[in-house]
Amino acid sequence: MWDYNKKVMDAFLNPRNVGEIADADAIGEVGNIRCGDALKLFIKLDAKKEKIADVKFKTFGCASAIASSSALTELVKGMTLEQAAKVTNKDIVNVLGELPEEKLHCSVMGMEALQAAIANYRGEKTAVAETDQEGAVICKCFGVTDTKIREVAKLNNLRKAEEITNYTKAGGGCGCCLDDIQQILDELWRTESKKPTAPPAPHKMTTVQKVMKVQEVIDKEIKPMLETDGGSIELIDIQGDKVIVRLCGRCATCPASGVTLKNTVEDKLREFVAPELTVEEVK
């Protein structure tokens, strides 16, 4: 007997949105009764064809399959198709609170049925159909391809063949393909680890942060240098990337004040604050 939480039991014993929609705008069908699980999803859009007004399902499977299907319909009702297309099996599990590891494939089936229905409405090939055509069948017992194994592994960060079995049933029959599944996973994550990662986006300072940072650099780095020659500097304003300052003391009358602004003040601010800053003097 599986250890189901109260949410799963309620969704199983009192499933929402069971049935068919005669004039459905989209229908998605996945699974195979011979393999033990099958799901047919019906979607009806509102009058403007913008949001999901109604959704129903018919499923053949265990308590987890029924509960996952019920949770899926409750989750997507009221969504646009664009929003629904982003729903994953993780979202279905989150609605239910949790599922036994061995039953996580039921949430994947729900995600695939939703993707199939959306593709059906758009007149596209379903993601499941494309996976079956493009990939090589690894698990002959349940017809699971290498493409599906990679997709599910990346989506759920799966590293072991046993985890793939929980999510797709692959390897759960005769078990002959478990070594092949593990090899696919090892190659997948070895390749992923070699991919270059994008550098983090530079942190954009607020105006207040920029003012405080510029003032700090002026006080600690620039002003002490100028004061050794009898000069000084004041921060007047910051307009975007333009820093407006006033040179004081001997710097104010120095014929080389322009050089001081560029080679000392601007260079230091670009080094310690932001490389795009420019400096202008106000008299």
How would you sum up this structure, described in words?
- The protein has 283 residues and is an alpha+beta fold.
- It has three domains: 1-131, Alpha-Beta Complex (Sufe protein. Chain: A), CATH 3.90.1010.10; 135-197, BFD-like [2Fe-2S]-binding domain (Arc Repressor Mutant, subunit A); 207-281, 2-Layer Sandwich (GMP Synthetase, Chain A, domain 3).
- Helix content is 48%, strand content 18%.
- The protein is built from twelve helices and eight strands.
- A three-stranded antiparallel beta sheet has the order 1-2-3.
- A hairpin with a 4-residue loop joins strand 4 and strand 5.
- The longest helix has 21 residues, at 207-227.
- The N and C termini lie far apart (84 Å).
Find the structural class using helix and strand composition.
alpha+beta
CATH architecture of the largest domain: Alpha-Beta Complex
Give the CATH class of the largest domain.
Alpha Beta
Reported for the largest beta sheet, the result is: 3 strands, antiparallel
| Strand composition percent | 15-25%
Number of helices: 12
> What is the alpha-carbon Rg in Å?
31 Å
Low-confidence stretches: 129-133
Widest sheet, order of strands = 1-2-3
Order of helices and strands: HEEEHHHHHEEHHHHEEHHE
The rounded distance between the terminal residues' Cα atoms is 84 Å
* Mean pLDDT rating: 88
How many strands appear in the DSSP assignment? 8
Q: How many separate domains make up the residues?
A: 3
State the share of residues found in helices, binned by percent: 40-55%
